[in-house]
Q: What sequence folds into this?
């Protein structure tokens, strides 16, 4: 049996409380039934939730997550008895509960808190939205009418379990059903320049159109002058890698201009997908440059640079630093991208 969560100080879970209260008071941006799509979650190799009644929930405007109905979970996975329920005050019902996920097949690696007195891993704590009559019973608690679809549903930290849509593994976050990607081949010649220096030139390229983002141009690797490229690394010396649920995992290059004491290094200015998602298979191995940091000449016309990207969300989920970069479509989950 997991430790009773309500014995730990409230401030240890303040972020979880703030998130749950914010959802109840303000409501999500929007929700959409995901049925009849089958959604499953695995923990330690065992399916702990299985449903065809999942709910897309946009907690913010950028991308959705899944909320699962209570009856989707296998017996014993969720433990939210009154003795374990966390509330702001002992005599107040807040309309939500927290529960540690209990693995049906626990292992030392999956149980970082074997001591019942130790503080639990917050990424393994589920938020359960309860009480459809909350608004009538507790009128003093502000609550958005948009929360109705969430009641008796469970929110999991996306990094806490393995997620499957039907039999396909999904990572980072669910794909937005209102977003699409098109990859189009173009025979219009293209050039990439930085400070007037030609970095790449190709008679053709793939144009990737992604809803709400600038078009990206993917060039054959042989069209890029490799003398300017250096593999990008994080501060710890590891290769820079980011994840995108639509395109896959990307590797990065820095562009280095000049030499000696006059060397100029542009961090993470080019990227590539070695094994992209099936819908983007055409861009495999091709190189793309941030429109925001380079000059792009397409069919003899110099394109206007989009506004530079910026971090619009930074948070910690399950001990990992996560970023969403405006203008790139990249959400950094499990990977850290150096921002310059």
A:
């Amino acid at each position: 049996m997991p430790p009773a969560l309500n014995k730990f100080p409230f401030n240890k879970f303040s972020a979880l409380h703030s998130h749950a209260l914010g959802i109840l008071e303000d409501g999500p941006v929007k929700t959409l039934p995901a049925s009849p799509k089958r959604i499953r979650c695995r923990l330690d190799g065992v399916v702990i939730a299985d449903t065809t009644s999942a709910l897309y929930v946009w907690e913010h405007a950028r991308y959705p997550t899944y909320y699962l109905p209570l009856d989707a979970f296998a017996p014993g996975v969720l433990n939210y008895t009154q003795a374990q329920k966390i509330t702001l005050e002992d005599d107040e019902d807040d309309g939500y509960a927290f529960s540690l996920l209990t693995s049906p097949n626990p292992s030392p690696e999956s149980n970082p808190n074997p001591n019942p007195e130790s503080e639990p891993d917050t990424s393994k704590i589920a938020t359960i939205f309860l009480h459809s009559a909350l608004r009538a019973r507790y009128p003093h608690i502000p609550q958005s009418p948009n929360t109705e679809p969430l009641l008796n549903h469970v929110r999991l930290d996306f990094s806490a379990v393995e997620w499957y849509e039907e039999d396909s593994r999904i990572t980072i976050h669910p794909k937005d059903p209102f977003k699409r990607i098109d990859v189009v081949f173009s025979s219009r010649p293209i050039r990439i320049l930085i400070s007037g220096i030609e970095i790449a030139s190709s008679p053709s390229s793939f144009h990737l159109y992604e809803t709400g983002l600038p078009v990206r141009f993917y060039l054959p690797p042989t069209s890029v002058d490799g003398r300017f490229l250096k593999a990008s690394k994080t501060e710890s010396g590891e290769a820079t890698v980011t994840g995108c649920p639509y395109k896959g995992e990307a590797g990065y290059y820095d562009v280095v201009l000049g030499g000696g004491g006059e060397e100029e290094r542009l961090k993470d200015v080019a990227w590539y997908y070695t094994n992209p998602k099936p819908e983007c298979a055409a861009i495999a191995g091709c190189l793309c440059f941030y429109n925001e940091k380079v000059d792009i000449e397409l069919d003899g016309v110099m394109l206007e640079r989009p506004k530079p990207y910026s971090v619009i969300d930074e948070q910690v989920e399950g001990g990992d630093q996560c970023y969403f970069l405006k203008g790139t479509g990249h959400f950094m989950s499990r990977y850290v991208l150096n921002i310059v």
